[in-house]
Amino acid sequence: MIKIPFHPMIFETDIISLSWHGFFSVIGVAVAVYLVIKQSRKDGIEDDLIFNVASWGVIGGIIGARLVHILDNLDYYIENPVNFLYIWRGGIGLWGGILGGLLGGVLYAKYIKLDRSMIGRLMDFAAPALLAAQAIGRIGDIINGEHCSRATDFFFGWYYTNPDSPGMSCITRSESWSNGHFPLGSDLSTAVHPAALYEFIWDIIGLVVLVVFRNRLQPNGSLWFVYLAWYSLGRFLIQWVRLDRVYFWGLQEAHFIAIICFFVSVVFISVKTRPSN
Fold first, then answer.
1. 67-85: average pLDDT
2. N or C: which end of the chain has fewer CB within 10 A?
3. Which of 12, 38, 149, 197 is nearest to 90 (CA)?
């Protein structure tokens, strides 16, 4: 079993704090913007256009990511409403970031009257960049102890030893919170599935897949739907070892979003996508 001893915060004051999760999320976004600019320059697209679209995409992503996290932990935020805005301490839902970022970027592109082909092209540039950003962000999740998971006896299971780590609080919270997986008095060194690591690996493999298919699919926007289908499938499977809020049939919020996104992606790919000439 792997022991992870890190404190989840890089620094913390009465005024502002910064978690490893927040730090690597910012790094991931910066890398994504850089990769999109680098690719767009090859097509002769001006940097200002990319910065503007990306800026609105980031704004939409931040809002969406925070809203999804709050909805998935609504009871906590109703009791602690002041924490709604403390995003720098961690607490974002990746699905909200992806879909909110898409909405923000597309709405701005529509506002400045970009045609559908150009919007699709920018989406294709963003697809591999998003997977790179997600993989980087998961490094912060690993250090922080984000995303409570089911216990495991496998050798690659891990446990957190810092009392401030969310990974430890997964075990020390109430039995009902963990859906009965961690009864009160559970051993604090109980190893759990490294869900964030699973997703990191899935993202890296997906990044390779997208690079292979880049510039090989038509119409513009097809690569983005390949990305969405890939991530939806992986997230749906990995979500089974996570202990987020269950709604019914054992399904969690991320399951429902993954099902919808996978269906939409497969329909688009089946109906619209074809190899480039």
1. 75
2. C
3. 12
Give the side-chain half-sphere CA count within 13 A for 66. Answer: 15
Distance CA 25, CA 132 (A): 11
Separation CA 180–CA 138 (nearest Å): 26
Alpha-helical (H) ranges within the chain are 20-41, 47-72, 74-79, 94-111, 116-144, 166-172, 195-213, 222-238, 253-271
Domain boundaries, the chain: 2-216
CA distance 207 to 230: 10
Give phi and psi for 80, each to the nearest 5.
Answer: -130, 65
Tokens representing 111? 């506002």
Distances (CA, A) of 233 to 42, 89, 132, 202: 31, 29, 17, 10
* Chain centre distance of CA 53: 20
**pLDDT, tens digit, for every residue of 201-225?**
999 999 999 999 998 999 999 999 9
Cα distance between residue 188 and residue 231, in whole Å: 32
pLDDT band at 228 (very low <50, low <70, confident <90, very high): very high
